[in-house]
Inverse folding.
């Protein structure tokens, strides 16, 4: 039983989490165990396990005998996520710039993925590649504690970014252009320009400005 349930619960978790992040299940939606079980083709037992995991991550709130409410990102929470992101990335950028060619190679891969997903029209994959680009910069700064803090913001950032790009697809074009400029500054070894461009790019992602991340 355990061998069968674990993979089933993982499939449900992956399905529901992806649906929340790409707004198939928007904030405020009530998800029922029966509907999810039917969509994934499993019993309700692995659905319950998956929803408990998602509740622990703050993506849903469980209501006995009713289902799981998708926790919406409030305007205040969006602002708090952006403030935390700006603080961490602003600290990390000048330190990460010294990683040089090693970081260049990683960012080139993420930027290539962003271009590919944008051309394919895959918004969720695009914002995931975008997020990976920024996470690589933070990780290269070498502070494990701040990296874990930044990683903890991932799901809310993905929700906010996906919503932004859907509202204005041109934001994806601007995001790619910004990342290209950030990467070019890193290739030149221009720490000041790399830091300034990274900081400006993150500042433009403020929820109050409703720009792309």
């Amino acid at each position: 039983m355990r061998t069968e349930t674990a993979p089933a619960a993982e499939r449900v978790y992956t399905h529901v989490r992806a649906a929340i992040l790409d707004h198939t299940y928007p904030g405020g939606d009530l998800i029922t165990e029966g509907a999810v079980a039917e969509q994934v083709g499993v019993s309700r037992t692995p659905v319950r396990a998956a929803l408990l995991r998602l509740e622990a991550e703050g993506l849903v709130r469980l209501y006995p005998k009713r289902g799981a409410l998708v926790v919406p990102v409030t305007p205040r929470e969006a602002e708090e996520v952006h403030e935390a992101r700006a603080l961490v990335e602003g600290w990390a950028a000048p330190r990460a710039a010294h990683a040089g060619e090693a970081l260049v190679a990683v960012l080139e891969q993420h930027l290539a993925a962003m271009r590919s997903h944008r051309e394919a029209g895959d918004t969720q994959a695009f914002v995931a590649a975008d997020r990976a680009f920024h996470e690589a910069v933070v990780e290269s700064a070498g502070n494990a504690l701040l990296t874990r803090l930044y990683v903890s913001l991932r799901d809310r950032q993905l929700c906010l970014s996906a919503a932004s790009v859907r509202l204005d697809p041109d934001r994806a074009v601007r995001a790619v252009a910004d990342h290209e400029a950030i990467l070019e500054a890193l290739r030149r070894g221009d720490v000041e320009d790399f830091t300034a461009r990274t900081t400006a790019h993150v500042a433009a992602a403020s929820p109050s400005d409703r720009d792309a991340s």
Notes: The chain has two domains: 2-70, 75-203. The domain at 75-203 is CATH 1.20.120.530 (Four Helix Bundle (Hemerythrin (Met), subunit A)). DSSP finds ten helices and three strands in the chain.
